[in-house]
Design brief:
Layout lengths: L1 E4 L4 H13 L6 E4 L9 H5 L7 E3 L5 E3 L1 H11 L7 H28 L8 H22 L8 H16 L5 H4 L1 H10 L3 H5 L4
Parallel strand pairs: 1-2
Antiparallel strand pairs: 1-3, 3-4
Helix pairs in contact: 1-3, 1-6, 4-5, 4-6
Length: 197
């Protein structure tokens, strides 16, 4: 299998964590690729959306969007079936984390636009969404994040991306329990190995 990725993408990092967790890293060829500089068109040929991460399976079929890639990897690893309630908690946490990443990436893209073209309205909406989502995680999901699963991996990537690209968003002082959880999670070997900083 081949994974098109970039190390600063929180979505790519989530897939690297999932692959490591499932013991699939050795089966995946990692291809570092900036989608904006894909002059050969390899990414566009595999994924018409030209987004990363994109996983090309051994049979040549391409799978894109990190939630779907994660599901494929869990199936390829024959991961043990999880009870529906646990599965639902993990998926909900992944969706919340992906929402944080979506808002954070959009905000980052807005930051790099020329000053005259930046929208304070959208920046404000994205920042408010991020802070609400971190608050919901802290209030209702943190206890379910103690185990290392798809949801907690996703949230770890989301929070670390906030530290990388949006240090001005002070989510940690408002949510010290989540901050403590995050500080423990980033000590994991795979988090250190995939750290884009």
């Amino acid at each position: 299998m081949e994974l098109f990725y970039t190390p600063t993408s929180p979505y790519s990092r989530k897939i690297l964590l999932v692959a490591d967790h499932l013991g699939l890293s050795e089966r995946i060829t990692m291809t570092l690729l900036n989608p904006l500089e894909d002059k050969e068109g390899r990414l566009a040929a595999a994924n018409p959306l030209k987004k990363i991460p994109t996983l090309v399976l051994d049979n040549g079929e391409a799978v894109y969007d990190s939630p779907l890639i994660a599901e494929v990897l869990f199936n390829l690893a024959d991961a043990p079936a999880r009870a529906f309630d646990d599965r639902l908690k993990h998926l909900k946490m992944q969706v919340l984390a992906d929402g944080i990443m979506d808002a954070a990436v959009s905000s980052q893209m807005e930051k790099i636009r020329p000053d005259a073209e930046q929208s304070t309205y959208w920046q404000g909406r994205w920042q408010a969404a991020i802070l609400r989502a971190v608050g919901q995680f802290d209030e209702s999901m943190l206890a379910d994040a103690e185990d290392w699963h798809l949801g907690s991996m996703s949230m770890a990537c989301a929070l670390d991306y906030l530290i990388l690209r949006h240090p001005e968003l002070d989510w940690s002082s408002a949510h010290p329990k989540t901050d403590h959880w995050y500080r423990q999670i980033v000590k994991k070997a795979i988090m250190i190995a995939t750290d884009p900083k």
